[in-house]
Amino acid sequence: MALSTSWDLQVDSGVFKILKKIPRRDAKAILVVIKLLPTNPYFGDIQKMKGEKNAWRRRAGSYRIFYKIKVAEEVILVFKLERRTSKTY
């Protein structure tokens, strides 16, 4: 699979709401990771989600960024952001 920088990035509005509630330093670090996703969505501390097709999670400090990769449309959809707990992947 050829990776290119032509991936489009879509972020759910709920992710921005969560970013406003967390400490600014953590929010900035998470935004950096999100902005790097279109460069290579398969790079970094990622793990494929069980039972989901093309759904991944990426670790960013004590938070987890959940996203889907739509290969045919070359779109990355960030749909969820969660603080890591014992119940979070």
What does this structure look like?
The chain is α+β, with helices and mostly antiparallel strands and 89 residues long. It has a single domain, classed as YaeB-like fold (2-Layer Sandwich), CATH 3.30.2310.20. The chain is 25% helix and 34% strand. The chain has helices at 13-21, 24-36; strands spanning 8-11, 46-48, 55-60, 63-70, 75-83. A five-stranded mixed β-sheet has the order 1-5-4-3-2. A hairpin with a 4-residue loop joins strand 4 and strand 5 (75-83). The protein starts with 7 loop residues before the first strand and ends in a 6-residue tail after the last strand. The mean pLDDT is 90.
Overall mean pLDDT: 90
The CATH topology assignment is YaeB-like fold
Cα shape: globular
Number of domains: 1
Q: How many DSSP-defined strands?
A: 5
Class per helix and strand makeup: alpha+beta
Strand order of the largest sheet: 1-5-4-3-2
Note the gap between the termini. Answer: 26 Å
The portion of residues forming beta strands comes to: 25-35%
Unreliable residue runs: none
Order of helices and strands: EHHEEEE
Q: What composes the largest sheet?
A: 5 strands, mixed
CATH superfamily: RelE-like
Number of helices: 2
State the CATH architecture.
2-Layer Sandwich
Helix content: 10-25%
